[in-house]
Inverse folding.
């Protein structure tokens, strides 16, 4: 079932869609009274590999650097140093024009869908926007594609003229996912995408994501602090602590034989390990 | 302001007023420079429907005015000399939209007696006509200057807020310079920097530029604030994630958040800028004779005898009060609407 | 303390920037003071150019700025071509008069606005508040120009107030107390007019700030504790609202200076305003620059005072 290969950063593997090598990031902040600048480290030599078609979960406590990693990968931030390989391309070396076609292949889903969708636009406009930016199709064709996307995520066709705030939280997240799918990406990064939803919706969206992954051979990087959730759907888990990746292994391996101390602490805080293992092995 | 329960009444009133000004040539019976030298400082005409014999006419008429030999400066109406008011008359020529020469006026009076709806000034010029023509100048100057300030302010504020860094520092420090001076002093200073005696249309353009340029700092700061908070929104990041260019993001996602602020600023700036032009012209630093501006219409009030004896010279200003009230009411209504729009 | 020194240095820099900006701006203007002379056939071209050279009007901009700067530091503030004297003495009296007028008007405005604003906030929604709103909107809609002209009309028609000027003709023969009363008498109308122009804005902001303070949780707690309303308003809500009000004070100084220029011209109060207008019309450049600088100085000082007051009153800023 799971390949026993250890895929921590550094090893070449043709199956890897993403390889992050020794990423560093820091932010400048000022001390309030004196105005003296000091640096906050957000990523410390973080390395990660994501296999093609797999679901990698990135776990860790808040402040560990998970979101920063996600944003660097999604090209929303430029790391201070390190390498990001995507599908054989060294992303940080490419120029803007070369990067443009690659951007469609990596999409980020935010934790709060309401903030990620422009409240003044209709659902149809939101879904058509990425297509418009990449100059695909005529206006009518984009509208049609927007309808297809709505259908794929299970939203009613009538909602195409609604504004984001007219949807429920779960529906909004579906809309965000639909938008991410518009450009037929290879990698979907979900930054705590399920955290703001209730349990029922979490399950529904998870199911949707699984279906989509099968249909379109998607690769997922799933950032979460909820280990219970992670255990249900992830193929591999990477643990992040103090701005670095301390461990990356197949889910079952990690849960049953955690190598690092921190991982052990993390797991110890979780309930009922046995039932989870039982479910996984089936 | 009492929240207008009927905002439409205000808007329609504003529209009607602007129409009057726009087609000043049609609504004004006389040209702004036409003089009736023997009727200086004539009081506003009284329209009568009933003549000296008690007969009622549907068409209003005015009596001819003659100077009172006993009281210099006072006029008595000659009840024997009636001049009916006619509508859609042919009168002095004026240019419609600066292109067509037209002679049609809404109303006028037969014979040589003029009808001064708002009285006349020292040269016997019809104040009503001058008010309408002056409106073309003052109102237009105010509108254009406000537009200039806003365009400049939005541009600089958006660039400052969006890019930050040294650009932001330079623009905001520059803006501080403009804040450091009381605006009327700044207005005077900039006006002083311009040549005093130049052609009419140059003066007009100059005024607009001067007034518009000094006022960019406040809108810029407000817009910068909006842009700063908007650019961090996740939907902006999402668009960037798709590879949208900065210009696209600014145009489609960031600036629309500022529309409300821009509109409110517009309604607040217009009265202020109109008054700036009026003040400059009033003090002799704006347009000169015979160009009518609401400011030059009032300039004669600086003389005591005009101030105390000829009350109708105040009329051009008094009419502005409801105009400004309407502007502020519109601004209030806009602020209310803004609060309910989801951000 | 560091905050204060930072604001102070910032103000000095700003003042220097304003000086250069206004100086450069005015020197860019085509034509100069002697242009009017050129129209006079009796004065030859040669004489005009000689005069120009004498007053150094032909030198390049940086040289002129440097000479002017030196003159400022020596306390002379440049040279007035129209009055044939250094600018400083001309300004001294005028500046004093403007300050007197502005300060009185500001004090008057705040004295009136505070109680009205507080009362409107307490009365919010009821008829008192609505009457206030209506009155302030009306006053706001009346242009400053019109207001001052109307006051002048009032003076001329009724004779209750002097129609301008700062002192009566016979002022020199009066004793000090009588002189002061005379000046105050002349001050009434301009100060009243100026105060009226500022009043609507002040009242509306004070009202808003008070309402916000009255709505805050700790005020409700005070009510729950049974503290009487007057005490709640004055000793709890008002201090809480003081932060925006102090910033408002800085703003009121700016508006006051601006409006005072117009009031002085119309009501013939011998301040900086009329001098400025005359200097512009006669192209007496150095006077114009000096007045602009002075107004900037007054404004900057006003804001600095507001900043210091803010610092002293709001503990949050001190711990920042």
């Amino acid at each position: 079932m799971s390949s026993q290969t250890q895929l921590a950063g550094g090893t070449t593997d043709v199956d890897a869609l993403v390889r992050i090598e020794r990423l560093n990031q820091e932010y400048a902040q000022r001390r309030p009274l004196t105005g003296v600048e000091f640096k906050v480290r957000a990523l410390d030599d973080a390395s990660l590999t994501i296999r093609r078609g797999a679901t990698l979960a990135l776990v860790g406590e808040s402040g560990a650097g998970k979101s920063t990693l996600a944003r660097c990968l999604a090209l929303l931030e430029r790391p201070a140093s390190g390498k990001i390989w995507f599908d054989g391309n060294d992303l940080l070396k490419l120029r803007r024009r070369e990067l443009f076609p690659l951007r469609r292949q990596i999409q980020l889903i935010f934790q709060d869908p309401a903030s990620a969708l422009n409240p003044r636009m209709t659902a149809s406009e939101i879904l058509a926007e990425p297509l418009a930016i990449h100059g695909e199709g005529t206006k009518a064709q984009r509208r049609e594609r927007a309808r297809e996307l709505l259908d794929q995520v299970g939203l009613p066709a009538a909602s195409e003229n609604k504004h984001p705030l007219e949807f429920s939280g779960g529906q909004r997240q579906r809309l965000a996912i639909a938008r991410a799918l518009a450009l037929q990406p290879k990698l979907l990064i979900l930054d705590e995408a399920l955290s703001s939803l209730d349990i029922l919706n979490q399950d529904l969206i998870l199911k949707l994501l699984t279906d989509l992954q099968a249909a379109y051979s998607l690769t997922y990087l799933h950032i979460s602090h909820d280990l219970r959730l992670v255990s249900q759907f992830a193929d591999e888990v990477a643990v992040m602590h103090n701005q670095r990746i301390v461990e990356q292994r197949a889910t079952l391996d990690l849960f049953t034989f955690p190598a690092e101390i921190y991982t052990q602490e993390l797991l110890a805080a979780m309930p009922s390990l046995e039932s989870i293992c039982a479910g996984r092995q089936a | 302001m009492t929240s207008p329960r009927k905002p439409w009444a205000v808007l329609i009133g504003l529209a009607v007023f602007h129409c009057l000004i726009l087609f000043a040539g049609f609504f004004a019976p006389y040209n702004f420079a036409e003089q009736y030298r023997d009727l200086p400082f004539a009081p506003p005409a009284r329209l009568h429907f009933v003549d000296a014999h008690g007969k009622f006419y549907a068409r209003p008429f005015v009596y001819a005015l003659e100077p009172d030999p006993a009281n210099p400066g006072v006029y008595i109406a000659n009840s024997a000399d009636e001049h009916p008011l006619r509508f859609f008359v042919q009168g002095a020529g004026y240019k419609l939209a600066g292109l067509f020469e037209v002679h049609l006026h809404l109303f006028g009076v037969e014979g040589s007696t003029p009808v001064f709806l708002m009285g006349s000034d020292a040269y016997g010029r019809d104040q009503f006509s001058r008010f309408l023509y002056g409106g073309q100048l003052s109102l237009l100057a105010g509108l254009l200057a406000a537009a200039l300030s806003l365009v400049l302010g939005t541009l600089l504020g958006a660039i400052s807020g969006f890019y930050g860094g040294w650009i932001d520092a330079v623009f905001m420090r520059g803006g501080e310079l403009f804040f450091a001076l009381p605006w009327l002093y700044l207005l005077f200073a900039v006006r002083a920097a311009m040549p005093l005696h130049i052609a009419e249309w140059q003066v007009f353009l100059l005024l607009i530029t001067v007034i518009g340029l000094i006022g960019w700092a406040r809108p810029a700061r407000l817009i910068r604030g909006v842009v700063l908070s908007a650019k961090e929104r996740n939907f902006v990041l999402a668009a960037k994630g798709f590879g949208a260019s900065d210009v696209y993001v600014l145009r489609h996602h960031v600036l629309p958040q500022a529309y409300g602020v821009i509109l409110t600023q517009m309604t607040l700036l217009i009265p202020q800028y109109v008054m700036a032009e009026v003040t400059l012209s009033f003090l002799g630093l704006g347009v000169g004779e015979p160009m009518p501006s609401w400011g030059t219409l009032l300039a004669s009030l600086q003389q005591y005898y005009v101030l105390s004896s000829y009350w109708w010279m105040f009329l051009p200003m008094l009419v502005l009060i409801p105009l400004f009230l309407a502007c502020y009411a519109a601004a209030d209504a806009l602020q209310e609407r803004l609060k309910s729009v989801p951000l | 303390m560091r905050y204060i020194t930072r604001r102070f240095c910032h103000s000095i820099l700003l003042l220097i920037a304003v000086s250069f900006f206004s100086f450069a701006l005015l020197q860019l203007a085509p034509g100069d003071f002697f242009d009017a002379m050129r129209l006079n056939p009796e004065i030859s071209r040669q004489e005009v150019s000689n005069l120009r050279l004498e007053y150094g009007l032909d030198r390049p901009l940086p040289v002129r700025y440097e000479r002017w700067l030196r003159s400022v530091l020596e306390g002379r503030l440049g040279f007035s071509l129209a009055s044939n004297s250094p600018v400083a003495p001309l300004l001294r009296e005028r500046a004093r008069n403007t300050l007197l007028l502005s300060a009185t008007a500001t004090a008057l405005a705040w004295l009136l606005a505070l109680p009205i604003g507080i009362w409107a906030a307490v009365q919010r929604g009821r008829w008192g508040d609505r009457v206030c709103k209506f009155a302030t909107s009306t006053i706001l809609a009346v242009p400053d120009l019109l207001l001052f002209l109307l006051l002048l009309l009032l003076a001329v028609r009724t004779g209750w107030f002097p129609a301008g000027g700062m002192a009566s003709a016979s002022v020199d023969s009066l004793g000090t107390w009588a002189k002061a009363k005379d000046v105050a008498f002349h001050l009434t109308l301009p100060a009243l007019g100026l105060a009226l122009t500022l009043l609507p804005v002040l009242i509306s902001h004070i009202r808003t700030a008070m309402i916000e303070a009255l709505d805050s949780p700790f005020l409700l707690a005070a009510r729950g504790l049974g503290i009487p309303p007057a005490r709640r308003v004055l000793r709890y809500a008002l201090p809480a609202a003081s932060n925006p009000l102090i910033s408002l004070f800085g703003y009121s100084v700016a508006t006051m200076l601006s409006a005072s220029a117009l009031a002085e011209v119309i009501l013939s109060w011998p301040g900086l305003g009329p001098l400025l207008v005359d200097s512009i019309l006669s192209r007496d450049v150095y006077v114009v620059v000096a007045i602009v600088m002075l107004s900037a100085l007054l404004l900057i000082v006003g804001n600095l005072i507001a900043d210091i007051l803010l610092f002293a009153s709001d503990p949050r800023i001190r711990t920042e």
